Fold this sequence. Notes:
Blueprint: E1 33-37, E2 44-53, H1 59-81, E3 84-89, E4 93-94, H2 107-116, E5 121-126, E6 130-131, E7 137-138, E8 140-143, E9 148-152, H3 153-157, H4 171-188, H5 217-226, E10 234-235, H6 240-253, H7 255-265, H8 275-288, H9 292-300, H10 303-324, E11 337-338, H11 339-374, H12 393-415, H13 421-428
Parallel strand pairs: 2-3, 2-4, 2-5, 5-9
Antiparallel strand pairs: 1-3, 6-7, 8-9, 10-11
Amino acid sequence: MADSRPERPDDSNPPDRPDRPSGGERPEDPELVAAECEGAIDLRVDVGVVVAHAPDTDPDDLRSFARRAAGDAVEELASATDVTWRFYLEDSTRLADHDRRRPSEFLDRATHRMVEGPYDAVVVVTDVPLISRRERVVPGLASPLSRVAVVSTRPLRRARRGRPRYALDGAPVRWNAATLVVHLVGHVLGARHREGGGVMDRFRFDPDRREVPPFDADVEASLHRLAGEIPASEIRPRGPLSRLAFHAGSAVRNSRMVGRALLDSRAPLLPLSLPKLSTAAVTPTLVIVFSAESWDVGFHMGNPTAALFAATSVLVAALYLLFAQNLQFPRKRHRIVTEHTALVNVTVFLVLVLAMAGLFTLVWAIILVIELVVFPPNLMGNWPSLEDPSVGLADLVRTGAFISTIGVLSGALAGGLESRTIVSHLTLFLDRP
């Protein structure tokens, strides 16, 4: 982290990092610096650039592309925020294949470098196709919460039908890549799309582009206000309780950012994107709903007990998925915890809680339909185990809730998540460049 940042107490944010892996290069090493531009404020933002290339790609070509894009973008970023920006080019990473990837598949590598670097943001540059939530190939996506941006050269090099692909070092690719980097970093800083010809317009490849558009006045004023908040706070936790307290404090301080991420994720609808999880939850309840024992328990259970059982089941299912599928970032444990990795972990957990609540609602609705439509009206009233032969709507709702809690637990335990990257993909990254 830059030495010019304001000092924090030694027990919460040590100015140096003696626990850096031995042999690792420090960001202060000039050989790592890809681009730098000084600002008017005595504050510096360190950005790590990670190159992830396909198996048969020359990594030097992609590294040269990344260095050039950083150099073309850094001046506009420094001018808009008035702080010093410095980009560091990290070692290249070879991917296993040429398959399409979600941006969340680079998240673990990026957060690892962010903590180890240490960096305030990370830009991943790759040459494999990048897909959005809607399964569309896009040139880049950003995650404001984790402060990670991913850029793909594949769409940038694609030319019109019948024409050769653009060269990686050609002017069209160069200036569109620089514009895309500034655009995505703008998203990382909290800027939204704005029409009007500035760099925060919805990104479209323009073969005639030869410069980076500026930020418009309103966005620039917003970035000025955010300048002092760009460096991330961090701690070296002394135990699980200290780590948990830092996560909770980070979420409270950035509650609006976390809330926006939860709103954008549409977490309660997540089970609809996870058929294995939903099937594992619904299947056993279709058997249990026709069991007399389940009705005995449901009818004789109090409303507070049923509500507490449902809430506990949702929470336990979310915790199980979080730890069983290792959805924390970075997955390799570090002695340093940054605020942004804490926000990512808190948001992923809250998304899982809302997703399990959505799964509970889905199963509950199915059970209620069976109770109200499939079962004969007087079936339960004739059961000998009932002290009162009358069965009301509240009894059906309570019994359905009890059966649904069993479905949520079985779905988490037996179904799980088809892909552990899908939660962070739907939660953290914007849907459009």
